[in-house]
Amino acid sequence: MRKLLTAAALIGVGVLIGGYGAWGQRSAGLNTQKVVNLYRIEKLEKIWHKAASKKKLNLMMSIWAKRAVFTYNGKTFKGKHAIRSLFAKAGPFQPQNHWISDTPEYKIRATVNGSKGTLYFECHYVDVDSKVLKVWVANQADLRRINGKWLIVDSSATTPTLKP
């Protein structure tokens, strides 16, 4: 057991060092403001997952623009009220579901160009009790910096499909 824990710790340190090096390469040549904006954009993904995992609907809605559009599995919801209604009925926000929402780091991509950006991430909703993956969703969002805050203005989510 001790050898297993030591190996896991060494692998974890290696992953951290590799991730730090990748971030350094990714940010090389970027100006400071662009790096700050990418950080703030990627923070939206973290807020999404925190809101879904803790069933905090107000927190989820804090990352959406007033007139945002959200398309989920081909159906479009316009405005924060409609989007809020959708999330209120969604599996992660249901009181009987004890799910945690997560995204593997390699399934997140963000871009920024001035006051516009994009964010792609996949959500893995896992039932904490059974440890079973309940829902898997890919989300592609267009973002805008509005009054100094990055918000989702147009987003599309669907169940991803694996292709060989």
Describe this structure in words.
This protein is α+β, with helices and mostly antiparallel strands. The protein folds into two domains: 30 residues; 128 residues, Roll (Nuclear Transport Factor 2, Chain: A). Helices cover 39% and strands 36% of the residues. Strands 1, 2, 3, 4, 5, 6 and 7 form a seven-stranded mixed beta sheet that branches. The chain starts with a helix and ends in a 6-residue tail after the last strand.
Write a brief structural summary:
With 164 residues, the protein is α+β, with helices and mostly antiparallel strands.
How many discrete structural domains? 2
Number of helical elements = 4
Oligomer class: single chain
Largest sheet data: 7 strands, mixed
- Using the coordinates shown, work out and report the CATH topology of the largest domain: Nuclear Transport Factor 2, Chain: A
Distance between the termini: 37 Å
Beta-strand level of the residues, as a percent range?
35-45%
Backbone shape: globular
- Low-confidence regions: none
CATH architecture title of the largest domain: Roll
Protein topology:
Elements (H helix, E strand, L loop, with lengths): L1 H26 L4 H23 L2 H5 L2 E9 L2 E4 L1 H10 L9 E4 L5 E6 L2 E12 L5 E14 L2 E10 L6
Parallel strand pairs: 1-7
Antiparallel strand pairs: 1-2, 3-5, 4-5, 5-6, 6-7
